[in-house]
Amino acid sequence: MKALGRHVLAEFYGCEFDTLNDIKLVEKIMVNAALEAGAEVREFVFHKFSPQGVSGVVVISESHLAIHTWPELGYAAVDVFTCGDKVDPWEACNYLTRGFRAKRVLAKEQKRGLIFETSPQAAQAV
Amino acid sequence: MKALGRHVLAEFYGCEFDTLNDIKLVEKIMVNAALEAGAEVREFVFHKFSPQGVSGVVVISESHLAIHTWPELGYAAVDVFTCGDKVDPWEACNYLTRGFRAKRVLAKEQKRGLIFETSPQAAQAV
């Protein structure tokens, strides 16, 4: 069984208010994380909320990175979704951990799009 | 313990090639799913891949919706991430299931950003 995508869901705790509330900084860290992991950036959109918080997404050829920040709690929800073998989502996740200086990270990988593969040999054997 | 966000990860199988490969249709279904669930749409970006496939994200005030399609496999990876009590991610997910006419859907909800809450009463009791 082959997975089409790898999706890392990460919870970043203990980040600084000013980092998580700075839309330009959040955008820069997210885009750089994608580039650092070898992804091809297609588009990105970021939005600043009032009184605080930033949401944003980087669409890459290999899927996407997303973030939602709660500066008042020092928390950010981070997603790194990649397909193909070229980009390792954990490379981007590790870059983000350093970029946001998260004191505690809970992260796990979820396989997306499990597809059953049959080889001609397997089909013949049936 | 309170969760800041609810994240539905859904795998749509058995969708039609032409639906999953039509960027304008995919965009319309995704944006309408957000609106149907009562979300406030902030921005959206969609990208068409060659020879096939669409990736896109809708940033909403309550977080985001994302999709990546593999038309040749009839498969789409769908995410609906919401925060707050106003929007139910499953409403958007159900709309998307109908919109993409998925024959089989595997979906689960992941809580995001678990925060320990202490009430003044609890603090006094300690």
TrEMBL record, chains A, B:
Record note on modification: Is synthesized initially as an inactive proenzyme. Formation of the active enzyme involves a self-maturation process in which the active site pyruvoyl group is generated from an internal serine residue via an autocatalytic post-translational modification. Two non-identical subunits are generated from the proenzyme in this reaction, and the pyruvate is formed at the N-terminus of the alpha chain, which is derived from the carboxyl end of the proenzyme.
Swiss-Prot/TrEMBL cofactor(s): pyruvate
Residue numbers marked as site, Cleavage (non-hydrolytic): E62, S63
InterPro entries found in the cross-reference section: AdoMetDC_C (IPR042286), AdoMetDC_fam_prok (IPR003826), AdoMetDC_N (IPR042284), S-AdoMet_deCO2ase_core (IPR016067), S-AdoMet_deCOase_pro-enz (IPR017716)
GO biological process: spermidine biosynthetic process
Extent of the signal sequence: none
Keywords: Autocatalytic cleavage, Decarboxylase, Lyase, Polyamine biosynthesis, Pyruvate, S-adenosyl-L-methionine, Schiff base, Spermidine biosynthesis, Zymogen
Record has Lyase as a keyword: yes
UniProt keyword Lyase present: yes
GO cellular component: cytosol
Pfam families: AdoMet_dc (PF02675)
EC code(s) of this entry: 4.1.1.50
Single GO MF descriptor: adenosylmethionine decarboxylase activity
Chain positions with Pyruvic acid (Ser) modification: S63
Residues at the catalytic site: S63, H68, C83
Cofactor note: Binds 1 pyruvoyl group covalently per subunit.
Gene3D superfamilies, sorted: 3.30.160.750, S-adenosylmethionine decarboxylase domain
Pathway annotation: Amine and polyamine biosynthesis; S-adenosylmethioninamine biosynthesis; S-adenosylmethioninamine from S-adenosyl-L-methionine: step 1/1
Domain of life according to the entry: Bacteria
Reaction(s) the record says it catalyses: S-adenosyl-L-methionine + H(+) = S-adenosyl 3-(methylsulfanyl)propylamine + CO2
Function in brief: Catalyzes the decarboxylation of S-adenosylmethionine to S-adenosylmethioninamine (dcAdoMet), the propylamine donor required for the synthesis of the polyamines spermine and spermidine from the diamine putrescine.
Subunit structure of this chain's protein: Heterotetramer of two alpha and two beta chains arranged as a dimer of alpha/beta heterodimers.
Family classification: Belongs to the prokaryotic AdoMetDC family. Type 1 subfamily.
PANTHER family from the UniProt entry: S-ADENOSYLMETHIONINE DECARBOXYLASE PROENZYME (PTHR33866)
Protein name: S-adenosylmethionine decarboxylase proenzyme
Source organism per UniProt: Thermodesulfitimonas autotrophica
